[in-house]
Amino acid sequence: MIRKPFAAPVVMLLLCAASVVASAALGKMALSPLEAIRGLLGIGAEDHEMVIRNLRLPRILVALLAGASLAASERCFKE
């Protein structure tokens, strides 16, 4: 049995998670990474949660979906 490399997908998922946290933290209202994680989980300050969930999270999700769509279309064209 041939084993596929395990490290590449794990590293990609960690980079994706780090970019989500960075995108949630950066903006006009700068937050620390810990505050951003708390806001994403719903256990942070009320104003941080509002900014993250109503303004930043939709932008992050659209960016992730656009990237996944581009990756899937490239995969289809390569075959």
From TrEMBL:
Entry GO MF terms: transmembrane transporter activity
Coiled coil: none
Keywords: Cell membrane, Membrane, Signal, Transmembrane, Transmembrane helix, Transport
Organism: Cohnella faecalis
Pfam families according to UniProt: FecCD
UniProt subcellular location: Cell membrane
Stretch forming the signal peptide: 1-24
Origin superkingdom: Bacteria
Membrane topology type: Multi-pass membrane protein
Main subcellular location of this protein, as a coarse class: membrane
UniProt name for this protein: Iron ABC transporter permease
GO CC terms of this entry: plasma membrane
InterPro entries named in the record: ABC_BtuC-like, ABC_transptr_permease_BtuC
Similarity comment: Belongs to the binding-protein-dependent transport system permease family. FecCD subfamily.
